[in-house]
Specification:
This protein has 471 residues and is mostly beta strands. The protein is 15% helix and 50% strand. Helix 1 runs antiparallel to helix 2 (24-67).
Length: 471
């Protein structure tokens, strides 16, 4: 604008000089041009002052924003796999979740009274989180199918050390991949009968103790080792030695030597050991098939014996029990394979210490292309997330999975001739429909065959369905 005005002024000056006798009109035009130039200079100065003031304001605002820091007491809430709350600095976190499992049953057991019907297998509420970065915690409380409420987990995990994390409280001992999994993530409605050797009538997978654990090699290898008081922490002041025994020492190590494509191709290997000081108390192994025990006389193999009144009583007493477990897992795209083996040596009070064995092999395939998830740093299977959640509006059909499992449980080496210990063969097939990561419908069929040491053979055929919400 200034250049144009100057040019115009120059032209007028030249024109005036050549004319030598400017008219009054020309003089007026010259005065107007001078006035215009003055106004242009004034506007340019104001514009520069405005730019300087704007820059100063912007700088002040940015500086103020940098000086403002988040207070630890500030918090935000959001939904991610449950209801979450988190402090503004991220050092404190809280997550609230739950689990509902409604089961339906129909079937029969030879010489037993299996009851058809429905029940709420589990209704649980859990709260977990982090306190000032270094402390994790978990509280899980549940209503069981027997109508009783129990604490399922109650522990604190200190993770302020690089070499190890330290967990203390009431939680699962590190033994068996399937047992350590949450029951909401299982492929089948019930764990394999092998589980009766880990979490059976006398054994409890959860005990009060202290455990050191960590993940190494990018969490592809895990190790866990702990000492546990084998009691119900909420009965008789924390001790019930007459029925629960004494101390356990339990350890587990896992590795994923092959891990590709974010876990869509992997090989899992694991091993565990547990020594249980039993103190000469009664010990009992028993199992049904892989179904929930509804009704009377549905237990198929049992190391107990029958007394004069026809009542089953513990058939052996033990000073100690030693268990060894091995694990194998394979994922190759939508196909997965899993297997475990457990061997138990009983140091009985009387001569003839028995040993028992169990194993299972299971395979599954996702018809919709998903892969079974694997939790690095824990060495267990995780929660299935469909590629497309079920939605009639958007056209998604969720994830569909078919699975089959065979389990063998050998309790024939019982030291009591009148015990029902024997061999159990269990066959299970499943169809799972994952509507979304938190909602699932399951259909299982189980056929179990037992051949006990008393000469009594029993078969069971059970159909089951579960409606599950787990978040």
């Amino acid at each position: 604008m200034a250049v144009c005005a100057i040019g115009l002024a120059s032209s007028m000056t030249v024109f005036a000089a050549e004319a030598q006798a400017p008219t009054e009109r020309e003089l007026q035009l010259e005065e107007m041009v001078k006035e215009l130039l003055q106004r242009v200079d004034s506007l340019e100065k104001k514009l520069e002052e405005g730019k300087t003031e704007t820059a100063a304001i912007k700088e002040a605002v940015e500086k103020k924003g940098e000086e403002k820091t988040a207070k630890p007491t500030d918090a935000k809430g959001y939904w991610k796999g449950g209801l979450n709350f988190e402090s503004a600095d991220g050092s404190n976190k809280l997550k609230i979740g739950g689990r509902i499992q409604n089961d339906w049953y129909a079937g029969s057991v030879d010489n037993g009274d299996f009851q058809d019907g429905t029940t709420f297998r589990r209704v649980w509420l859990k709260v977990m989180g982090t306190v000032y970065d270094d402390f994790d915690f978990k509280l899980q409380y549940g209503l069981e199918n027997d109508g009783l409420t129990r604490w399922k987990d109650l522990y604190i995990d200190y993770k302020g050390l690089d070499i190890t994390q330290i967990r203390f409280g009431y939680f699962k001992e590190p033994f068996s991949m399937e047992e350590l999994m949450g029951n909401g993530d299982l492929t089948f409605m019930e764990r394999a009968p092998l589980n009766s050797m880990v979490n059976g009538n006398d054994f409890a997978s959860r005990n009060t103790g202290i455990m050191f654990h960590n993940g190494v090699l990018d969490n592809r290898m895990t190790w866990e080792a702990g000492v546990f008081k084998r009691t119900d922490a909420f009965v008789n002041g924390g001790e019930d030695d007459a029925t629960m025994g004494d101390w356990d020492i339990t350890a587990r190590v896992t590795g994923a030597p092959w891990y590709e494509d974010n876990g869509k191709k992997l090989l899992h290997l694991g091993a565990a050991y547990s020594h249980k000081d039993w103190g000469g108390d009664a010990l009992r192994y028993r199992s049904r098939g892989s179904y929930y025990n509804r009704g009377a006389n549905t237990t198929l193999v049992d190391t107990s014996e029958t007394d004069a009144n026809g009542k089953l009583v513990a058939g052996m007493k033990a000073d100690a029990v030693d268990m060894v477990g091995t694990e194998l897992g394979l994922v190759y795209g939508p196909f997965s394979l899993a297997s475990e083996y457990v061997h138990s040596e009983v140091d009985s009070v009387v001569p003839g210490s028995p040993s028992f064995d169990s194993y299972y092999v299971q395979a599954s395939y996702f018809l919709t292309g998903e892969s079974r998830p694997y939790r690095l740093g824990e060495g267990i299977w995780g929660q299935v997330k469909p590629k497309n959640n079920f939605s009639l509006k958007n056209g998604g059909w969720g994830a569909w999975e078919v699975a089959a499992r065979y389990t063998n449980l050998d309790l024939t080496d019982t030291p009591v001739a009148t015990a029902q210990g024997g061999e159990l063969d269990d066959y299970a097939v499943a169809l799972n429909w994952y509507l979304n990561p938190f909602t699932r419908v399951m259909w299982d069929y189980v056929h179990s065959e037992s051949d006990d040491t008393t000469g009594v053979n029993q078969d069971a055929d059970i159909f089951m369905m579960r409606l599950q919400l787990d978040f």
